[in-house]
Amino acid sequence: VLLATVVVSISVVELSRALSNLNRVAVVASAVTKAGNQADMLMKKIMSKRFDENIYNSYSLDLDGDTGHIVASGYKGISGRNARTVELWFKVDNDDLGLSPYGLVYWGEEDYCKRWRIELIR
Predict the structure, then answer these.
(1) pTM as predicted
(2) pLDDT at 13 over 70
(3) Can you count the helices (H) and strands (E) in the chain?
(4) E strand or H helix at 107, and its extent?
């Protein structure tokens, strides 16, 4: 009877740990889903803009470097030290760069060490 009680007690402890881990996984999955939904909504908003269908096949923006840009108001980026992935497809002639650096993507506050920036430097 004592052995059965010990086995049941150990099983209850292990089950409790497993449920606790499952809860942590569910919280992380919920956060990832929320971030994915926000990114999806932003992309839908961007893609609802009119594109130059003749030149760019309806899948790109023509940004001229003077007035063309995309702003995601209120988006603060990914905080902390988590990994980030930014993907850009672009074609730039050397003459188009102007003065370097030439910013491609940035997010965060303008304060020192609070902004992430990807840029071209020639």
Answers:
(1) 0.32
(2) no
(3) 2, 2
(4) strand 102-108
Residue 18 pLDDT: 66
Structure token digits, residue 89: 């497809």
Q: Residue 49: CB partners within 8 Å, gap ≥ 6?
A: 61
Q: State phi, psi for 27 to the nearest 5 degrees.
A: -65, -45
Return the C-alpha torsion angle 51, 53, 55, 61, nearest 10.
20
Going from N- to C-terminal start, the domains of the chain cover 1-48, 51-122
The single residue listed with the structure tokens 């052995």 is 3
Q: Is 55 exposed, middle or buried (0-12, 13-18, 19+ CB in 10 A)?
A: exposed
Tell which residue, 44, 62, 43, 65, has the closest CA to residue 52. 62
Secondary structure (3-state) at 119 = strand
By C-alpha distance, which of 66, 71, 27 is closest to 49? 71
